[in-house]
Amino acid sequence: MSLFKQITEKPWERKGIIGGLKPEGTFKSPAERVALNFFLIAASIVFSLFGVSYYIRMELPDWLPIAEPTSLWFNTGLLVLSSVLFQWARNVVGNGGSKNVKLAFFGGGVFAILFIAAQLQTWEELQLTGVYLSSNPAADFYFLLTGLHAIHIAGGLYVWIKCVFRMVTGAEAKEQRLSIELCTVYWHFLLVVWLVIFAVLANT
Amino acid sequence: MAYVPLADQDHEQELHHPHSWVEKYVWSQDHKVIAIQYGGTAVLVGFVALVLSLLMRMQLGFPETFDLIDPNAYYQSVTMHGMIMVVYMLTALLLGGFGNYMIPLMVGARDMVFPFLNMLSFWFYLLSVLILLASFFVGGGPTGAGWTLYPPQTSMAGTPGHDMGIVLMLVSLAVFVVAFTMGGLNYVTTILQYRTRGMTLMRLPLTVWGIFVATVLGLFAFPALLVSCIMMMFDTLLGTSFFMPAIIESGTPMDYEGGSPILFQHLFWFFGHPEVYIVALPAFGLVSDVLSTHARKNIFGYRMMVWAIIAIGGLSFIVWAHHMYVSGMNPYFGFFFATTTLIIAVPTALKVYNWVLTLWEGDIRLNAPMYFAIGFIFTFIHGGLTGLFLGNVVIDLPLSDTYFVVAHFHMVMGVSPVLVIFAAIYHWFPKVSGRMYHEGLAKAHFWITFLGTYAIYLPMHYLGFLGVPRRYYAIGETDFIPASAQTLNESITIAALIVGAAQLIFLFNILWSLRNGAKADPNPWGSASLEWQTPDTPPVHGNWGDKLPTVYRWAYDYSVPGAKSDFIPQNMAEEDVEMEDSAAKGA
Predict the structure, then answer these.
(1) pTM
(2) Is the model's pLDDT at A1 over the cut of 80?
(3) Which of residues 72-131 of B touch A (CB under 8 A)?
(4) B residues 527-566 near A, CB within 8 Å?
(5) Which of A76, A85, A194, B417 could be A107's S-S partner, Cβ–Cβ 3.0 to 4.6 Å?
């Protein structure tokens, strides 16, 4: 039943059991996924508001654009690989298999860790060239946005570590299917967010 | 794992079973205990904020009498009173307290979807409260920037708490947002996915609808607060210039350049306006259920009420700049925001009509909760009407920053939700505690609070018309404010002190009744909604015993024609309803 149909019901007319003896869930989806979707919307709003602030701040006279380091392309590659590996793991479990799932899933997380390390490395490089926090507003936003993105990845890695721990201590990959799926969705989300941030930062 | 409809939900949810007193009452994962922890903390800080408001009133009513209130202390009181009341008291009590208690019981679930996250949410909330209160004890004291925390004055030397106070405030708010997000995801998911058999969305009591939409608003609006807090923290601690413009402080230029204070205002009010409805919508829901139960009538226009809640929620995101008319903006923007502001009055007025029509020809039982609920209709209409004045740019400009505004928002989002909270506490107290409160004390509490708030806020409208500015520590001599305004100020202060003291009656009544109240019937008001049908009173861990309830009807089957009882519980099947003999014969 569509959401619109549901909220146009006349409850004072319809008595008795609706929907057989099944419990009511608005979406045919595990609760964890519903919660994740709401979280993703909230996180998107956080990043969007930073984006809006960026463009408003850019209009002001003291704005000095910074040259984005080329190493960001390499870092982006790491994050893409991480996302691809998660998708691989998800595809295999989705088809009921378990071959290479652990490899792909572990690999996805490792590449995400490498991404964070590479981002930190890029921070260092920038600071060596005299671009540091509070040196100018464009640099402020650079550190703020990349830092915030990295924190979100770190949050994802916490869930990833818990799942890895369960797998290492003997849980079958199939039992972890939901965790793998949700991690994949979250990683794709963060990849898209990163691509948008990258585009916004480059567009000064 | 494909989605499996939970055919056997009775045993579906694994409950965390506590093994010790500490696990049961301190690190509890039971939504009811968490609700009480949330509610208790919120009431406690609410009392701190109440005392701060009394300090302000003492200064305004009797200036130069009390040494302990200097200008700094006054501004700190203004700021902390506002922030605590809006965020740490109202939001936490309505969503963390009532949301936690009511949602699983009203939708027929055993607990929240993520009990551990729920527990974490409370502890983060407590942490945010402690960080906030800690600012009273650091050098310079808490921030005195006003609850809106507008830069650049938050960080300037003239503002009390411009060094440590503001930092603690920002950290505390950020932690609160994290706490709210954890709780909010739980509430939304539980309402959407954990309803029991037969509990369709349109069979949910309005309380759940109000809490649901308010939580969605919170999840989408608190990010704006988080974003502005983070950027301001960077400005304060790390020397960035997101919001701080080039500015001179006591003759020396500060180390900032080019930031946009207006940007902060937009971000703040993009959170701040929905926040009004985060507080109002749960209150709308709770009061609807109280009115309907004690009027023994179904709520008038249930579907319209639901749609109005959703419409108000949606509209609340496109009215924020009406808080910024005097900040300066393109006149077309002003026109746009004035229009949307007036449009939001339509669904809101619809709700008021429906409450009044619910009372119309009802079999009204004037219990204490009903007193407070009807009192709410008065104060809300009152505050809502002055909102129509302030929503118009041309009327707002002269009234802005006067006591008219103070009177308006206290009526509409201070007194009104608080009256609903009292109504709701008295209404659900028998279920939560298993005992009755003292009816006489509750009614005394009502009359002093209700009449007292009118004695406080009604004269403030006149002060506003006279042009008495808000936020001033002392008015002093002016050419335009007559001396009689001070007499009015004195009377307001006396009323405020009486109302403040009357809240002790409430506190005493609740605490005394917990031990000494008469044992409560499981359903003393004859309420139809699910939370009153639990096998145990107060409900035990897991709520429903062996079997989850099945829902056959909406939550408002009161005075059904032909039925013997004047209410039919939601979990009563059609064939079990006893009919009057004459009705049966007639059929």
Answers:
(1) 0.95
(2) no
(3) 113-114
(4) 548, 550, 552-554, 556
(5) A85
